[in-house]
Amino acid sequence: MDQQTMDVVKDVVKDLTFNGKMFSAFDVTKVLRNEKGLQVFHSEVRRAVHDMSVNGEMPIDYTHSDVTLSNGKNAIVYHPQSADTLQYDEKAIGAQASPFAPAQSAVFSSAVKTTPAPIATKTSNRDRRGRFCISNKLTKQVGLLPFGQVTAYADHSRIVVMKSGNCGMFPIGVKFHGLIVDKDVNIRLSPGILKEAGLDNGTLKAEVIGGRIEVFAK
Questions:
Q1: Would you call 124 helix, strand, or coil by DSSP?
Q2: How far is CA 60 from CA 32, 81, 186, in A?
Q3: What is the Cα–Cα distance from 157 to 215, expressed in whole angstroms?
Q4: pLDDT tens digit sequence for 109-165
Q5: Which of 38, 21, 20 is nearest to 29 (CA)?
């Protein structure tokens, strides 16, 4: 693979990880072929994506899992540690319509327009993957920035979200989730962590309490 193609691979992976997407190397290959117009060998793309993971060129909260696809075959899927891989859709990326705006073909800049998220305090706001969105109206109140890192944990019937490295005292035995703030300064909580807190059903509410964000049943 030449350096120019490798640069495009890295740009695509950065776009996917910055948006907290779950993806396989074949998803990247589809983007290159169907959206970027490049003729590439999947084996070369697979190796390049694997090397990015091994060399620490993905966010620190990204990991990979062996996932069974709808056709019964298995694939390595790269995803945030808090993501529910059962929600992975191999048809969601690289089909026809591009999920990337032209201005996002490289690392995001201040020129990228942001789309306000619905206010989390007024709606359960679960997307088609069952994720709950904490809107930028709340995240900005606690000083979060695009692509910043946060820590979340389930504590009985609530979820607590705060800046990573500024967590203070934790309840004993909690499971921590590392999350990345998206480009619009929103945070999306996966069905997995919602279930840990017993919040996988019903309407939810998010509030800023004591310099951190708490999510609980409304």
A1: coil
A2: 24, 9, 18
A3: 9
A4: 333 344 444 333 333 457 777 888 898 889 999 898 888 888 888 888 899 998 876
A5: 38
Give pLDDT tens digits for 81-117: 888 888 898 888 876 433 333 333 333 333 334 444 4
Cα 158 from Cα 163, distance rounded (Å)? 17
| Amino acid at position 42, single letter | H
State the Cα angle at 178 between 123 and 50, rounded to 5°: 115
* Residue among 83, 85, 62 at smallest CA distance from 14: 62
Looking at the 3D structure of the chain, how many domains does it have?
2
Here the tokens at position 52 are 């990015």
Structure tokens at 184: 């619009």
Alpha-carbon gap, residue 38 to 8, rounded angstroms: 10
Measure the CA angle with vertex 126, ends 169 and 190; round to 5°: 45
Question: Are 140 and 48 in the same domain?
Answer: no
CB neighbour class for 34 (10 Å; exposed up to 12, middle 13-18, buried from 19): middle
Residue 109 falls inside a structural domain: no
pTM above 0.70, yes or no: no
**Final residue of a domain: which of 66, 85, 104?**
104
Total residue count of the chain as it appears in this document: 218
pLDDT at 24 exceeding the cut of 70? yes
pLDDT at 154: 87
